[in-house]
C-alpha cells in the first residue's frame, strides 16, 4: 500500500492534537504527591515549591486519575483531550466532561443510586497495588464470575491463565517493554515508521493501535527509563485467552467476561485494571507464550491486573456525554440529548 494512504494515520498533525490540561490549587494542595503516583502516563512533576505541575512534554488523555486520588479536591480540569482534525478527530466535536445525570425513579422523581450503580459509577482502573498476596479463595470467586458471563451462542470462548509467580510476571514485563519500545522507536523515526504500515492496513486492521493517546501516552511511558510496567506491580494477573473460532468473533464475549470479573473483584475488596500491554508481552514471549496456551486457535487480547490498592483510586469523575438519538413510539418525536441541552424535534400540534 502506498505510504500516502497511511501517512495521515501514522503521522497525524500534532497541532491538531490537544492533550488534557489539569491545574493544582496550591491553597488546597497538601503536597502529598498522590496525583503524581496515580497518573499512568507520568504527566506530573513537583516544582521548586513542592507543588505538582504538568511536565513540559506530557501526554494526558483525560482519565482524571490525578483528580480522583487527590484528598483535598485541589485539582481542576482546565481542558480535556481532543483532536481538531484528521483520522483521529474527536467526534462529533470536542465533548466536555460531565458528571452522571441525576438518578430518577420510574415516575421521574429524584432518587438514589442503587448498589450496582454505585459500583459501576465509582469503579476506576486501579494501577497502584500493595505487595500483599490476594487469597486464592478470592481469585477463585473472580474466575467464577467470568465463567458464568454470557457469550454468543453460549460458546464461552475463553480460557483463564492465572499468574501469581513473580518471576514469570517479570519475564513477561520484560518481553512487553522490549517489544513496545521497538514499535515506539520505529514510530518516532520518519524512515522506520513505514514498517508499521501493516498494523493499520491489516488484517486485522488496527488503526486504534496508533492512536496518539496510546503511542505518546502508553507506549511512550512504557519505553521510558523507569517507565510504566505493564503488570503495574499487581500480585495477580489473569490472562484472558480468546478462541478465534468463536461465534461472532470472541472480542465482545471476552469484554463482557472481563468486565464481569472486574466488577466482582471490586465488590470483594480488591481492585483491578485491564492491561493490553501485559497481554502483548505474554503473546510475544519467545518461550512462555506456548506454555501459557497462547497458540492457534487461542490468542490473548487482554489481561486483568488484580490486587489490594495502595491508596484510594476510585470515585465518580466526569465523562464525555455523546448525543443520544431516542426514537420513541410516536415516530414524529425524536429526542437528541446533546451536552447539557436537550434538543427536541417534533411536529407542531395544530
What would you say this structure looks like, in words?
By secondary structure, the chain is α+β, with helices and mostly antiparallel strands. It folds into three domains: 93 residues, Alpha-Beta Plaits; 188 residues, 3-Layer(aba) Sandwich (NADH Oxidase), CATH 3.40.109.10; 26 residues, no CATH class. Helix content is 31%, strand content 19%. The protein has eleven helices and 15 strands. β3 and β4 form a beta hairpin. It is globular and about 55 Å long. The relative contact order is 0.16. The C terminus is likely disordered.
Summarize the structure.
With 350 residues, the protein is an alpha+beta fold.
